Amino acid sequence: MGTSLTPEFWERFAVLFVLAAGLTCVLTAVFDDLAVRVLRRRAHRPTLPRTPYRPQRSDHRVSVRS
């Protein structure tokens, strides 16, 4: 049982295809812009060097004998 594709079908198909292509382009541009903003924000943030905690050394030793 075959169905024929009517001109109304092709019209709706064309409209939906153009809308889907346009929406894809817009969403791609939006996500691309967000990704660029995130990368720029990371690049401009100064990174502090992480140094391990080291206790202050004293010049003399405490006597154990008292």
Distance from first to last alpha carbon: 106 Å
The sequence of SSEs as H and E is H
**Low-pLDDT stretches:** none
The best one-word shape is rod-shaped
Strand-residue proportion:
under 5%
For the largest beta-sheet, the strand count, sense and barrel status come to:
none
Individual helix count = 1
Total E-strand runs: 0
Structural class, judged by helices and strands?
mainly alpha
Nearest-integer average pLDDT: 85
Protein architecture, described:
By secondary structure, the protein is mainly α. It is built from one helix and no strands. The protein has one helix at 7-44. The protein is rod-shaped.
Can you summarize this structure?
The chain is mainly α and 66 residues long. It is 58% helix and 0% strand.
Strand and helix map with partners:
Elements: H1 7-44
Structure characteristics:
rod-shaped, 66 residues, 1 helix, mainly alpha, 58% helix
